[in-house]
């Protein structure tokens, strides 16, 4: 599916996502009753909700791409599909290269394990060897600024601390493509400056970044290209300034 | 394409073997964190069962088999590995919502790490079994060379069952409760607390319709009867366990991108 010679790092081809939520809590009993009664009025109802409608875009290698849109627009859903955590109802995605992601407040850690153990596990998931990860421990821990807590279980961390650590892991494992979901607003001013610098270094080394936010300034600061997602559809895409202008229009109407 | 899918489950194991190994260790560590006796708690349950069944079998029913306790232990340990993995593993995907919906960890790794943790538990209790074997002067020897193969068979069998059930349990949470009860039933259907030759032939044929019964029998052969399991049976159980694994993994893989929506 992925081809390394493509000019694009990410290719998204008419993605549609329909959530089929089971009505109340589904139980075997209800499913069984449905099965044996042939009743039209099924107890297990599927509520449908279209979160993404025919979304198309490509991200070039080495580009910093922004996705902007109000809460509930479908941004996080789109990212999960890109990461392969969620399956689109229809459409195709191609990711050309290794990928690291910080999804929705970056709590994809094992809560019972320590910060250090989670660094190891995250590195292994991304295909690094143990040696490579161990050689990066100091850098990652230093950057996260939570040295004193690194051998405590993640469940004792505040959400800010967890995000700092996962950000630190995500940028330091050096993937080809980095996906960040609403993370730049987290952390104190000092951490934000540090993150900004790190992302800039990262961008300058020719890697691809996908930044997602409902906040205009973050997108304007980093991205050259962007798209506006609104109620699951792409309203516009192109130069960041134009996209942000359109976002302001949409915001003022609603 | 179809052929690729069949071997996908084995490829994932090979690719993430180190991660699975680490997580299995951590899983074990988590289980006993903060308890003074740690791992020895996991021996308490089999030891208590040993006392109860020995009492029943030897004292209440006046059975003359002197080494009954050892016989029981030989089946109980591999059975505990299977039982604990299946019961805990079935709920493991539904119970790890943040890992399943917010990390790039392939969800099957969560299931493998449960099966792996109970495998380590099993390995840690083997020295205790050996002590029992020596105390009761049961003879053991060369048939033990079959042990690694039997462990591999049990791993695939257990992983296949657990993968299947854990995926199903995401959509139907009743599964984990059903399984808990079925496992008790399964235990009594296996020749672990009784000898299969005490059964009427008809019933004996029925219990051996279950591949798990064969597997337990093989473990008893090597640890208790000091004899080589019949190669024909071992091969049969091996093939069945691989089949279970392929089916279980395929079902899991076909559903795994839906987990994040339902956990
Ligand atoms: N697992 C789910 N089941 C049903 N609906 C969902 C699920 N996840 C998200 N949604 C819905 O999809 C829409 C988009 O959500 P999301 O992608 O989180 O938006 P954003 O990140 O842009 O704020 C929301 O209306 C949300 O309620
Ligand atoms: Mg979001």
Low-pLDDT segments of chain A: none
Q: How many strand units of chain A? A: 9
How many distinct folded domains of chain B? 1
Rg of chain B is 19 Å
Order of strands in the sheet with most strands of chain A: 5-6-7-3-8-9
Name the biggest interface: A-B, 35 and 27 residues
Q: Give, in order, the helices and strands of chain A.
A: EHEEHEEHHHEHEHEEH
* Helical run tally of chain A: 8
Beta-strand content estimate of chain B: under 5%
What can you see in these coordinates?
The complex is a heterodimer of chains A (254) and B (263). Chain A has helices at residues 28-37, 75-83, 115-125, 130-144, 159-172, 189-204, 216-222, 240-253, and strands spanning 8-22, 46-60, 64-68, 90-95, 99-102, 177-181, 208-213, 225-230, 233-239. In chain A, the strands form 2 sheets. Chain A has a 6-stranded mixed sheet, with helices on both faces. In chain A, β8 (225-230) and β9 (233-239) form a beta hairpin. The radius of gyration of chain A is 20 Å and the shape is globular. In chain A, α3 (115-125) packs parallel to α5 (159-172) and α4 crosses α5. Chain A is α/β, with parallel strands linked by helices. Chain B is mainly α. Chain B has one domain (3-262). The two termini of chain B are 29 Å apart. Residues 75-76, 104, 182 of chain A line the site of magnesium ion.
What attributes does this structure have?
heterodimer, A: about 250 residues, alpha/beta, 6-stranded mixed sheet, 9 strands, globular, B: about 260 residues, mainly alpha, about 0% strand, binds adenosine-5'-diphosphate, binds magnesium ion
